[in-house]
Design goal:
heterodimer, A: 264 residues, alpha/beta, Rossmann fold, six-stranded mixed β-sheet, five-stranded antiparallel β-sheet, B: 283 residues, mainly alpha, 13 helices
Chain lengths: 264, 283
């Protein structure tokens, strides 16, 4: 198992954002955490990537404890946040170069690794342009390249295609699939797009009000509903209710919109 | 497209490129390299757009020409034998580097709102290297102030010292001073977290720091209650060191060694506090 949690919990004051959660993800899986806005998905990711200490419970990522061995967790993972994570006032090449340095990629390999990363996501020609001239899809691809420069065993993607048009979304999906087939990278993603989960994930967990309500392969989840022509959306509606709107604060919403505007 | 488990060839499974060995030497080298990488990032940004450096020339020009011009005529400020403009020039250099750095926190809040900060905090970079790298970049930015104030001072007939060692000293003092105030600004940004609150507090702090220092007048002229404050104010030590290094007839009243020691001590203390607080900016 590349990721395991034992009763991982997070509360904010009196609000329980994540109820005791026990999940595990095997190497090479594409694990999708699905849920409406405000279900606690981002809080789970933030704990797993060492940004937010858990209130109680434990988790191991790539074999390292997220609290006591955070440095090694950070070395083993890649992370593409929902919001922007590359700097618009630098070129694509410079963005990757700085991260190559922060991830201790040896000087002799730095240049070739950055070039390779850029061409993998189809940005070799745009390498010398400032990122604020990039389109939303190009920015997302650059972020994926930036997060995989150090060849992480596990890549976290938080709502990877929010605010992207269908063509850009498709390109991002292809790159995610490529990472899995070519490098065997394990992928942990959150989404509220059922289509995305259906296309990418080998396993999904549906999260609602801070709890995992069901966790299985998309095929088995659909089969469990009994009816013909069941979609993952039907499964989702069955477990999380038919409303996608449950919470999300003013701050989250305004940040999400801003990210969507920048990306779109 | 979904692949069954057995299709994943174990030989291509990604492994982390390096696992840290707790060796003190490599830890120090890593710390220095990463601090420089963060500073490099900021300097590269500046290379793409240096318009902000030009607009920063205006304020010191106004202080030296208007304020300095008027007070040079009154001769009411005891400057220890220096012409008032000579006395003022190092003060304005220290002040303009302070003003350029004290709003650095706005950039920290901006990066946090965009999501860039999260990305840095998830990388294997020591928090203190993130904070010190940003502080150093603020230091590099304020070097433009040295060029501007030296140019203005030359025009106004201030008798400057052109000894290369003294110039290196001025550069070092400005970099340390700017790093210090930028880190102070980062700490405030981490505490208040929104731009509106930050701007309010930034305005509130700048003027007291400036007026409770020896930048415009010597400490001996201050009322008794203000003197102890100006003696802990790092800007006083920065300006004191600059007076000794910049001017032909300049002298330090605290001693250059003490000036530099106080500035370094403040910087180390603030970087340590900043490194504790910086991860909390994203919560």
């Amino acid at each position: 198992m590349i990721l395991e949690t034992q009763a991982l919990t997070r509360t904010f004051g009196r609000l329980t954002a994540v109820n005791p959660m026990t999940i595990s993800v095997a190497r090479g899986e594409v694990f999708g955490l699905l849920g409406p806005n405000g279900a606690g998905k981002t809080t789970v990711i933030k704990m797993l990537i060492t940004l937010l200490p858990p209130t109680s419970g434990r988790a191991q990522v790539a074999g390292f404890d997220i609290v006591h061995n955070a440095g090694n967790v950070r070395r083993s993972i890649g992370y593409v946040p929902q919001m922007i994570s590359v700097d618009g006032s630098l070129t694509g090449y410079e963005n990757l170069l700085i991260f190559a340095k922060l991830y201790d990629i040896p000087r002799s390999q730095r240049e070739s690794r950055v070039r390779e990363g850029l061409s993998l996501v189809g940005l070799a020609d745009a390498a010398r342009r400032l990122v604020h001239e990039y389109s939303g899809g190009m920015i997302r691809r650059l972020e994926i390249a930036q997060s995989t420069l150090h060849r992480p065993a596990l890549l976290f993607l938080d709502e990877p295609t929010v605010g992207l048009d269908p063509i850009a979304r498709d390109a991002v999906w292809k790159h995610i699939e490529h990472l899995r087939t070519e490098f065997g990278t394990t992928i942990f993603l959150t989404t509220h797009y059922m289509e995305e989960a259906e296309r990418l994930c080998s396993r999904v967990a549906i999260m609602h009000h801070g709890k995992i309500v069901i966790d299985d392969s998309p095929e088995r989840l659909k089969a469990s509903m009994g009816a013909h022509e069941t979609t993952l959306g039907d499964v989702f509606a069955h477990y999380a209710g038919d409303t996608l709107e449950s919470g999300g604060s003013y701050r989250e919403t305004s940040r999400g919109r801003r990210a969507a505007r920048r990306l779109g | 497209m979904r692949l069954p488990e057995e299709d994943v060839r174990p030989d291509v499974l990604a492994e982390p490129t390096s696992i840290v060995r707790p060796n003190p030497f490599s830890m120090i080298v890593g710390f220095v390299n990463k601090t420089l990488a963060i500073a490099e990032l900021e300097v590269r940004k500046l290379r793409h757009d240096f318009s902000e450096l030009i607009t920063r020339a205006i304020q010191p020009a106004l202080w030296l020409l208007l304020f300095g011009g008027v007070f040079a005529k009154t001769r009411i400020i005891p400057t220890g034998g220096l012409p008032y403009l000579d006395f003022l020039a190092p003060g304005i250099l220290g002040q303009s580097a302070l003003f350029a750095s004290i709003f650095y926190g706005v950039a920290i809040i901006w990066e946090r709102d965009l999501g860039i900060t999260n990305r840095f905090l998830v990388s294997p970079t020591p928090r203190s290297a993130l904070v010190l790298g940003k502080a150093l970049s603020a230091g590099v930015r304020s070097l433009s102030q040295v060029v501007i104030v030296y140019g203005l001072a030359l025009l106004l007939g201030v008798r400057l010292r052109w000894n290369p060692l003294a110039l290196v000293g001025v550069v070092a003092v400005i970099v340390i001073g700017a790093a210090l105030f930028a880190t102070f600004s980062l700490i405030i940004a981490c505490l208040v977290k929104t731009r509106e609150r930050f701007m309010g507090i930034g305005q509130l702090l700048t003027m007291p720091l400036f007026f409770a220092s020896n930048a415009l007048y010597p400490i001996s002229l201050m009322p008794d209650w203000l003197r102890p404050i100006s003696r802990i104010n790092p800007l006083s030590y920065e300006v004191d060191a600059l007076r000794a290094l910049m001017l032909q007839n300049g002298a330090s009243s605290f001693g250059l060694e003490l000036d530099v020691a106080v500035l370094l001590a403040w910087t180390v203390l603030l970087v340590l506090i900043g490194a504790r607080l910086y991860p909390r900016v994203v919560l």
